[in-house]
Amino acid sequence: MDRRNLILSVLLVVQLGLVAFFFWPNQGSSAAAGALISDLAAANVTGLKIQSKTDTISLAKTGDSWVLANHGDYPVDTVKVTDLISKVLSIDTARLVARTASSHNRLQVADDEYVTKVDLATSQGVTKTLILGTSPSARATNVRLAGDDLVYLANDLQASSIRTDVGGWVDLVYFQVPTADAQAVTIENSHGKLDFTRVNTDTWTLSDLGNGEIFNNNNFTTVLSRLGGLNMVAPVGKEGKPEYGLEPPAATVTVVTKPAEGEAKTTTFTIGAKDEGGTNYYAKSSDSDYVVKIATFTGDQFINDTRDRYL
């Protein structure tokens, strides 16, 4: 081997060694793998903020429960929250995939180039931020602790599974009546008042039918089915405000139910003004302490309802 080929061979070996040093998982670490977030216990976490590029969800602990802090402290599924905290605190340092900041954008774990960020806060003012990036496989995700250049692989935790929408944390069904027990429904809006009464199991009627008027039962049963599970877009809070337009409302739906064995119950659902974006209506159920937003098409159905639709 001549001198030139020898030099090239040495350079190749050096380059391969550098690549292995900087990018080979677990390279250069003889210590046993430990927790990525080692100084934080699950019981001490009192706040979570989850961010994607488009949405943010803030969760806060109140007693033994959790609420949506940026949606009027609406109660959430506590099990989902504690499960996420457990998964985050279970991430270890066994699988190192990158050492330098130059890899952060490529793996999408940079401070400003990421898939999801999770802030875990304590009542002592300590906050730990986990940055989740791309997933090289179905059961592994690139993760980095903010303030540290090292990037690791986390098992069983994907950025896409950490929801930043309201529906990921609460049951969106807001107004729900047992339609089989419904005996009467009243819809009031600017067009007037519509009183519907159950005749038998499958048949309803509209009050004050004139000569020659025939009630369209099918159109009404569509409305009744919707009242059996009406979804919200997002909760707003317990405080009523003039801009919600609920006093007086644009429409009121009143449902009287009575089970075969039990007492009659009256439930009301009021619909107010559109929100600042003009895409949702404010609404309030008598069964809930919370004002919510509902989709425009849902609000329009009751606000614009007329007698003619049921004839």
**Which spans of ≥5 residues are poorly predicted at pLDDT below 50?**
22-31
The rounded distance between the terminal residues' Cα atoms is 98 Å
Mean pLDDT: 89
Looking at the chains present, what oligomeric state does this protein adopt? single chain
Order of helix and strand elements from N to C terminus = HEEEEHEHEEEEEEEEHEEEEEEH
Helix content: 10-25%
Give a short account of the largest sheet.
9 strands, antiparallel
Q: DSSP helix count?
A: 5
Strand content: 25-35%
The secondary structure category is alpha+beta
Number of strands: 19
Q: Gyration radius, to the nearest Å?
A: 29 Å
The rough form would be described as elongated
Strand order of the largest sheet: 4-3-2-1-6-7-8-9-5
Strand-helix topology:
Layout lengths: L2 H21 L21 E7 L4 E7 L2 E4 L5 E2 L2 H12 L6 E3 L5 H4 L8 E7 L4 E6 L7 E6 L5 E5 L17 E3 L6 E8 L2 E7 L5 E3 L10 H11 L2 E2 L2 E4 L13 E7 L7 E10 L5 E6 L5 E5 H8 L8
Could you provide a short overview of the structure?
The chain has 311 residues and is an alpha+beta fold. The protein has 5 helices and 19 strands. The chain starts with a helix and ends in an 8-residue tail after the last helix.
List keywords for this structure.
311 residues; 19 strands; 9-stranded antiparallel β-sheet; 5 helices; alpha+beta; 33% strand
Structure description:
The chain is α+β, with helices and mostly antiparallel strands. The protein is 18% helix and 33% strand. It contains five helices and 19 strands. The protein has helices spanning 3-23, 78-89, 104-107, 217-227, 296-303, and strands spanning 45-51, 56-62, 65-68, 74-75, 96-98, 116-122, 127-132, 140-145, 151-155, 173-175, 182-189, 192-198, 204-206, 230-231, 234-237, 251-257, 265-274, 280-285, 291-295. The strands form three sheets. A nine-stranded antiparallel sheet has the order 4-3-2-1-6-7-8-9-5, covered by helices on one side. It is elongated, with a radius of gyration of 29 Å. It starts with a helix and ends in an 8-residue tail after the last helix. Residues 22-31 have low confidence and may be disordered.
